[in-house]
Specification:
By secondary structure, the chain is of the alpha+beta class. The chain has a single domain, classed as Arc Repressor Mutant, subunit A (Orthogonal Bundle). Helix content is 35%, strand content 11%. The strands form two sheets. A two-stranded antiparallel sheet has the order 1-2. Strands 3-4 form a two-stranded antiparallel sheet. A hairpin with a 5-residue loop joins strand 3 and strand 4. The protein is globular, with a radius of gyration of 19 Å.
Length: 170
C-alpha cells in the first residue's frame, strides 16, 4: 500500500465528494431499501422507522444529486403521489452498499452471515465483491494497490452544496 504524501490536493478527493452525498447513516439505509425494491415514502418510513423530516431531507438530497428520480403515480381513489426510483447514478452505488454489508457480516455478525444473502439471479451462486484491475487480475486488498497522484488541475470534483431543506412538510 503506497503512502500518498502532502503533494495530493485533498480538496478534490473523490471519497470526500461521495461522502457529501451518501456519507450519513440514513442516506445509506435509504439506499439499502431502494436496492431492496422500496419506492414509496410510506414504505421507506415504515421499514426504516425514521422521522418524516429526516426521510424527506434524504430523499430530496438524492433527487437533487440524481441518485433517485421522483415519479408520479396514482393509487385508486387517492391523490397523485410520488415514488422514488434509482437512476443509473444510484444503481452505481450498489457495490458500495454490498461492501458495507459484507464488512458488517464479517466483523459485526455471529459468524453465520447476515440476515440478507445475495445470490446471482441466473445461477443462484452467492454474490460477493471483488477488487479487480482492468486486466482482470483479482486483488487481495489495499496492499496490492498503488495509489498515484494525478497532475494538479485534473480530476477535480464540483462542490456539493446542500440547499436549506424546504421539503420537510410534504
Amino acid at each position: 500500500m503506497a503512502v500518498i504524501t502532502n503533494e495530493m490536493d485533498r480538496s478534490r478527493c473523490s471519497v470526500a465528494g461521495t461522502l457529501a452525498v451518501v456519507g450519513e447513516k440514513w442516506s445509506l439505509l435509504v439506499l439499502r431499501e431502494a436496492f431492496l425494491g422500496v419506492r414509496r415514502f410510506a414504505d421507506f418510513q415504515r421499514n426504516l422507522e425514521v422521522s418524516r423530516a429526516v426521510l424527506t431531507d434524504r430523499l430530496a438530497t438524492f433527487v437533487e444529486q440524481g441518485v433517485l428520480t421522483r415519479v408520479p403515480y396514482h393509487a385508486d381513489g387517492q391523490r397523485e403521489r410520488h415514488e422514488y426510483r434509482l437512476t443509473t447514478k444510484g444503481l452505481d452505488l450498489y457495490p458500495t452498499v454490498v461492501a458495507l454489508m459484507e464488512w458488517g457480516d464479517r466483523y459485526l455478525g455471529d459468524g453465520q452471515g447476515g440476515p440478507i444473502a445475495l445470490q446471482h439471479r441466473d445461477c443462484g451462486a452467492p454474490v460477493r465483491l471483488a477488487l479487480v484491475c482492468d486486466d482482470d487480475h483479482r486483488l487481495d486488498g489495499a496492499y496490492d494497490v498503488e495509489a498515484t497522484v494525478r497532475p494538479r488541475g485534473t480530476g477535480r470534483y464540483r462542490a456539493i452544496e446542500k440547499a436549506p431543506s424546504s421539503h420537510t412538510h410534504r
